[in-house]
Amino acid sequence: MFWWSRQPESYEAAGSRILDALESGNGRLLASYIDKEEKELSGATPETLDAFLRDFYSPKVKGFLRDGDPVLNRAELATHYTQLYKHRDGRRIGVALALHRRGKRVESCPIIQHLVDAALRVELPPDKPQPTNRDKLVFMIDAYGRNADNLTATGITRVCYGQAFNLESWTWREYVDTVKASLKRFDHRVAQKAHE
Q1: For the chain, what is the HEC assignment?
Q2: In DSSP terms, which residues pair with 103 in a beta bridge?
Q3: pLDDT tens profile 61-96
Q4: In whole angstroms, what is the distance from residue 83 CA to residue 97 CA?
Q5: Residue in 66, 107, 98, 103 with CA at minimum distance from that of residue 84
Q6: What is the rounded distance in angstroms from the CA atom of residue 97 to the CA atom of residue 34?
Q7: Which residues lie across from 100 on neighbouring strands?
Q8: 55, 106 in Cβ contact below 8 A?
Q9: What does the pLDDT look like over 158-177, one tens digit per residue?
Q10: Dihedral sign of CA atoms 43, 44, 48, 54 in order
Q11: Single pTM value for the model
Q12: How many CB atoms lie within 10 A of CB 179?
């Protein structure tokens, strides 16, 4: 009898396989890298991920090609694997994956929210900088709001946010309301500072 022990997968190999799954529309492969808790909370299955990739993600990022090599940054709670993409019209997006190790496996969590963020950023004009602070919140409210029904129709019914092993989840409409509440708090803080 031979004993064979699979070596732990590297973060680089896992990140590369996830990108391959995204680019080829392979929901089954993508599902194999999603954290169990995110799958349960969001409704992510190989079938719903196929629909998500086919009906939402792939049409949004059509024409975007990898731009340079991926960047790997190790942090305390996760290792971040980021790949930039560029469209011939000058638009740029980045796909950021938060990877963590569970035994010999590498998983990404939360992945769906990161993919939706990247796909929605294709709507930004190429000649303007990425929005930050208040402008980012306004953009997210508008973009998520316009796409909430399409996202729900894929079967991915909830978005997860947070760190691996400590996720919160909302329906897509609830997430829009959460970002609206963040915008309200942001505006309140700005108004307070202006009166100081």
Answers
A1: CCCCCCCCCCHHHHHHHHHHHHHHCCHHHHHCCECHHHHHHHCCCHHHHHHHHHHHHHHHHCCEEECCCCEEEECCCCEEEEEEEEECCCCEEEEEEEEEEECCEEEECCCHHHHHHHHHHHHCCCCCCCCCHHHHHHHHHHHHHHHHHHHHHCCCCEEEEEECCEEEEEEHHHHHHHHHHHHHHHHHHHHHHHCC
A2: none
A3: 999 999 999 999 988 778 899 999 999 999 999 999
A4: 9
A5: 66
A6: 11
A7: 107
A8: no
A9: 999 876 567 889 999 999 99
A10: positive
A11: 0.89
A12: 21
CB atoms within 10 A of CB 144: 21
Q: Which two tokens stand for residue 162?
A: 């947070």
- Tokens 């496996």 locate to 105
Q: Which two tokens stand for residue 188?
A: 């309140």
Amino acid at 110: P
Rounded to 10°, the helix 133-153/172-194 angle is 170
Tell me how far apart the alpha carbons of residues 184 and 187 are, in angstroms, rounded to a whole number.
Answer: 5
42 vs 161, which has greater pLDDT? 42
